[in-house]
Amino acid sequence: MGKDSKMSTDPPKHEMVYFPPPSQLVSMEIPVGGDIGDEVHLVDQVLLFTSGEGKATIAGKDQAVKATDVVVVPAGTQHQFINTSKTEPLELITIYSPAEHDPQTVHKTKEEGDEEEDNGKDEAPEWSQQSKDKNEKDGLAKESGGPYKNGDDGRHEKS
Q: Cupin type-2 domain: from which residue to which, for each copy (predicted)?
């Protein structure tokens, strides 16, 4: 999964909205032609799309997303969200449980967010980091990939 050369270089914006233990609510805007980048978190993530349209790739499976759609990304599941609109941003609210980012974080650009994470400036609160480590040690989340051994790819579809 790579970045398409036709995609916008305008990065998504992140702003922490609510962050009591053990979860974190974040508002996000993905610009026209933009994406969040191919990611895996060691925490669960729930996304509620509030406007725009896009493509969600969860554990290698694509699906269209639009306002009012909800997507669940279990811990350890590879995911990517792309704004497919030619005219408006893809806006969403996402909940990380436990928290994924420093509660004071505001990223004006994806590059800024990546740099802060790489430099240890956007670390989850200590209580959240302990939960991440415990999840990984207990086999509840993987550093990469998905689906899980039970076949759950985050879409919860019955075959």
A: 28-96
